[in-house]
Amino acid sequence: MSKLLAAVAVAALVLGSAAGAASAADQHGDQHGAHQRVVHKQWRQGGKIEHSDWNRGQVVDWRAHHLRQPPRGYEWREVDGNWVLAAVATGVIASVLEAR
User: Fold this and answer.
1) Are 65 and 56 in contact, with CB atoms under 8 Å apart?
2) 5 CB contacts (<8 Å, ≥6 apart)?
3) Which of 58, 89, 95, 100 has the most CB atoms in a 10 Å sphere around its CB?
4) Average pLDDT over the chain, rounded to whole?
5) Cβ partners under 8 Å of residue 77, min gap 6
6) pTM of the model
């Protein structure tokens, strides 16, 4: 009986860990870096991206993704499945594209 209880406890721990990892992956894209796109209607040319959103974005290699070269003081970042070209200092957005 105690072996059965121990096996059930181990199975519950393993299954609970897998479910928790899957849930975390669903919230933040899968574990391989693919992200679901989130549409931010306020992110448009001339608008501003919040500092917290900008900071959690990843710098994008514009050459590798065939994006236009950013002007001086601007940078491409991938945030929530979007490529955002914005001024580093102010967050003013020049362009927003869906990341592929």
Assistant:
1) no
2) none
3) 95
4) 78
5) 54, 57, 58, 59, 60, 83, 84, 86
6) 0.64
